[in-house]
Amino acid sequence: MRRLLAALCIAAWGLGAGTAVAFEFSDKEGRFAVTFPAEPTRDKQEGRSASGPHIHTTWEVDQPGRHFSVTYTQYAVAPVKNYDKNVMGLLAATQGKLLRQARVELDGIDGREIYTQLPDNTVMRQRMFQVGNRLYQAVYAGPFGTESRADVRAFMESFRLLKD
Which CATH code fits 22-161? Predict the structure, then answer.
């Protein structure tokens, strides 16, 4: 009996050790929801680009060597949807190397998923979707080889847009 209890305790501990903490998050103003690995913090900045004035709102979680975030950029006027241009801008801004990209769809909205190797051997996995005058970006950055971990997949796949 003692061996059975010990085995059950070890099994239960093993199950618990593999369970990641998740923080269900939704931003009503941003009209999105996602599951972060912890409670996010917010950063909001105004900017200007070739597409005109805009506001970046970012919700992010920084962990040792890893970063999870969702940013939505709201433009005064909806820019022309051009994911190729967005990807080229991303590569120029990060001095990164494009590893691969693919078309993705979210509730009928076309988007892109991009994998980039950054100069410090960090990998960035990003999904972007343009909806009207907003560009949404769900981003993970961490050590090369971690971009397909279960917690990263869960974060990326949990991103969804909320209906008005």
Answer: 3.40.1000.10
